[in-house]
Amino acid sequence: MNTPHSTNPDCRAVRQALEDRFGAAVPPALAGERERHLAGCAECRAYRASLQRLQEGLRTLPAPDPGPRYWANVLPAVRSRLDRRRETGAGRRVWIPAAAVAIVAGLLLWATPQRLSQPGLEAGGVEQYGYLDLPDYNRLARVGGAEVLMDSLLEPAEREFVMGLSGVLDLSTDPVDRLSEMDEQAVETILQKLKEQSVIQS
Amino acid sequence: MPPPDDTELIRRFQAGEESAFNELVRKYQQPVYTALHRLLNSHEEAEDLSQETFIKAYTGLKNFRGDSSFFTWIYRIATNLGLNALRRRQLRRILSLDSIGLTLTSRTPGPDRQVEDRETQEILSRAIDRLPPKQKLVFTLRYFENLPHAEIARIMNRNVGTIKANYHQAIRKLQKAVQA
Ligand SMILES: [Zn+2]
């Protein structure tokens, strides 16, 4: 298998070095000893070949280009948005989305790797940042639907809290959009709850 | 006469010359849009957040002291907005039952097999889309925008080791996806 994971420290070092160079227009040569390792290690050569295939695939992805009319319109659009903000005064409207983002970040912190590395759940796809990776989410959801997903991710007390929160936020629509419609007092209450639960730090 | 550099433009803007800001927008509109589009894979969102980036820059520039380069600073604004949009999207996926069905359907291969190139592109786009937000951001800036690890570290306010680790993890996931 062309896997980056190997128990051999030389293999690991070589594969990391290959990944460091990934994407460079002219990849710098590996150090002499690593080149020698590659020459003698079929698995590392296979890994290098698979990275080359990945790179070839990535090169075929089209670059985003919205065309000349788009570029000509950026500045007027920015200017008119600036003018509109000046007229309405942006202070209050900026504050609520910021709070919404804080709540979103807090909610995401729930999906910590520790919770996912319970028996039967693969931790491999989950990141150090605490985001729930989509394949893991799908795997969990497939097994038992959203209920199982909740049970797997949350402690009972947290689960209850989320259920309570979902009553506040009406998660059947869109939590973020709903949040941006709420008044400051309601957002403040939720923020306070999240702080009490140590879901958000500040 | 060579075009004025960023420091000069910022100085002029801070001195009240509005047109200097226009110059900065024209200079950076393309990299900002491209990075956001790569990150979000959506023209509408990239367009919206590009404009928002420049609006934030306009407001912030008055107090810009040049602790980082304008390049780093504008990328930081854009990528923060992009990351937040990705997180919102992820939260929606986590909390919305509908998205489960949608995602599962989109994972099922269609009956018609496309040409190989097209198929690889689709697999890759989907795999990139599924990267966790920060990995996706690092991968975008490093691979598509060709920024050095050190510059990405400055933009994201992280150390180079963390950025490299993110890049490695992203590559491995993409490599696994095309291999499968
Ligand atoms: Zn090896």
Describe the overall structure:
The complex is a heterodimer of chains A (202) and B (180). Chain A has ten helices and no strands. Chain A is mostly helical and 202 residues long. Residues 90-106, 108-149, 166-181 and 197-202 of chain A have low confidence and may be disordered. Chain B has two domains: 1-101, Rna Polymerase Sigma Factor, Chain: A, CATH 1.10.1740; 103-180, Winged helix-like DNA-binding domain superfamily/Winged helix DNA-binding domain (Arc Repressor Mutant, subunit A, Orthogonal Bundle). In chain B, 79% of the residues lie in helices and 0% in strands. Chain B has nine helices and no strands. Chain B starts with 5 loop residues before the first helix and ends with a helix. Residues 96-114 of chain B have low confidence and may be disordered. Chains A and B meet through helix 1, helix 3, helix 4, helix 5 and helix 7 of A and helix 2, helix 3, helix 4, helix 5 and helix 6 of B. The structure holds zinc ion. Residues 8, 10-11, 14, 37, 41, 43-44 of chain A line the site of zinc ion (ZN).
Percent range for helical residues of chain A? 55-70%
Strand-residue proportion of chain B: under 5%
Number of strands of chain B: 0
Q: Give the count of structural domains of chain A.
A: 2
Task: Provide the low-confidence segments of chain A as ranges.
Answer: 90-106, 108-149, 166-181, 197-202
Shape of chain B: elongated
What's the main sheet of chain B like? none
Number of helices of chain B: 9
- Globally, the shape of chain A reads elongated
**Measured on Cα atoms, how large is the radius of gyration of chain B?**
19 Å
Radius of gyration of chain A: 24 Å
Mind telling me the CATH class of the largest domain in chain B? Mainly Alpha
Binned, the helix content of chain B reads: over 70%
Q: What does the secondary structure layout of this molecule look like, with pairings?
A:
The complex is a heterodimer of chains A (202) and B (180).
Chain A: H1 9-20, H2 32-40, H3 42-59, H4 68-88, H5 91-109, H6 113-116, H7 134-153, H8 156-169, H9 175-181, H10 184-196
Helix pairs in contact in A: 1-2, 1-3, 2-3, 5-9, 5-10
Chain B: H1 6-14, H2 18-40, H3 43-61, H4 70-95, H5 97-107, H6 116-129, H7 133-144, H8 149-156, H9 160-179
Helix pairs in contact in B: 1-2, 2-3, 2-4, 3-4, 4-5, 4-8, 6-9, 7-9, 8-9
Residues 8, 10-11, 14, 37, 41, 43-44 of chain A line the site of zinc ion (ZN).
